[in-house]
Amino acid sequence: MLGPMRAWRHGVEITLGPPKQRAVLGLLASRINDVVGFEEIIDAVWGSEVPPTAANGVHTYVAGLRRVLEPGRSRRELGDVLVSTGGGYALFMDPDDLDTTLFATRHRQARRLREEGDHPKAAEVYQSALRLWRGEAYFGVPGPFAAVERTRLQEQRLTVVEELAELLLDLHRAADAVTVLSAAVAKEPLREKLRGLLMLALYRSGRQADALSLYRQTRQLLREELGIEPVLELRDLHNQILAGHPDLDEPAPELPAEVPASPEPRPGDLRRPAQLPCRPRGFAGRQAELARLREVVERDRQHRGATTVAAIEGGPGAGKTAFVLELAHEIAAGFPDGQLFVDLRGSAAGGAPPLSPLDALTFALVSVGIDQQDIPDELHAASAFYRSVLHGRRMLVVLDDAADPEQIRPLIPGGPACVLVTSRRRQRGLAARDGAYRLTLGPVSTAEATDLLANLTGAGRLTGRANDVAELAELCGRLPLALRIAAMTLAAEPTLTPGDLVRRYRLPHTRLDHLAVRGDSSTDVRAALAVSYHGLPPEAARMFRMLGCCPSTAVTTQMAAALAGLTRAEAQNQLQVLADHHLLEEVTGCLHRFPPLVRVYATECSEAETRASRMAALGRMLGLQRREEALRQYEESAA
Known about the structure:
This protein is of the alpha/beta class. Helix content is 54%, strand content 10%. A five-stranded parallel β-sheet has the order 7-8-9-6-10, with helices on both faces. Residues 254-268 have low confidence and may be disordered.
């Protein structure tokens, strides 16, 4: 709530609905695990201007929130999260899942550390509290309650800024205090305590002229806006700065009785990890893509200190990990300080959560020889420690199966390192903010598919069977995972020919049954597709099922809108989500196409819809086609 209101369910962001619906959620979240009366909700959302429809509005907004917070709950079932009880409603959840709770907790922790004399740690906690803010609290949420909460939380935020600034000045970090205070003063220009602290920070940074100029601006602003003079404390500070009073100088630091040793190891103390898994046997093709990335890495190595970040994206089974390992082994000699390999589990089977950034950092730091007890237990501090440890080291870091940029960014070191990322999702944010090079892996060519099959089965098995091999490659969607399973099947059955396998795979409704290795979910095309499907937001998952009802492999935005019963804009948004997860290929802005095996899986998923729902979707699409045909005939006759 410390910014535009956002919420996540099982790690997936949910849509919170219209502003007043968010206002209801904001009120309930502020009274977590407590009953909020019906009349309180009306007063909080509408205030003194209560419309006759307010009661119905509350019921509508609560129903809308239940749909997104507990999508699997039927109307007759009692909810576990948003509960109707005692003449009102209660939101039941862990208070630590609210950023407002975390902010208050970290503020209290920072104050306690400051009182105990642990000023450096207190400063870290203050800063971590401020990093929770993403803009104005309850941004865009209407109603008198939200307005009051915005003011209250902003006051707490400013108190934290002031306490942090005082602490930074005590720690002889005046320049850091200037940075913190300048941003706060820009947002709250009439808060005199902020301006006084900024004047002192500027003075202690050797910027006496800037400090005096700030006082003149402050005096003029207060006169013009409020018709008053600065408070006495500010005037006294101005006079002391003019005179260069010694009381303003930084106090001499207290020397500890025994200076503790730094936990950061010397470069010679670090291990040289070599964690790259072996290259997959039989790798074939992708030579143009490999050459392109080798060129990117080499170009960055010519600029001393430059960090290479490359994101390799693609759908399930596209061979992203095999590709990255092939590249990593080729360039490893250029990174003599070691190679880290971290499985981020962004698309783990069975709904398992991704590896947290802090756990990933801990794994990486322990891998290079850091004692786990020396690793900070707060994400930003651990990330800073990681960058310090790897500073100047030519390290190759492979981050496999990433979920999103927030999981990746803490693991990007500075200096002459190379970070290779694989992900099933498009990493636009990583490219825009972090300068990552993006490469999308699609199906391999027919020639590359033939080479892969030959490498794994032996060229003799394919001799004289070019047509069967080409058809087999197409039935596998030219997808490396499916091709490897087909090759394994041929290798395991010496009498089986590519033509036999083609006949086995031709039936779409059983094809995915054959493209699997029993007992190994990581070598199962259906299981790989299922992980991506189950990771979709509910609206996009429904669109995927509706598209599975369509007999066509290619689908236009209008067709998708008709199938799902949505507007064109809504359908376009859902198609974009599917394309971002590489479950659809974007041909043009209004035309998308299913990869062959994804098309087979979507048809299976469509069976989860009722027969009536599928028939209604096809009826809407048939009506669209009739209208388009009538329009075409009319235009031809008019011409």
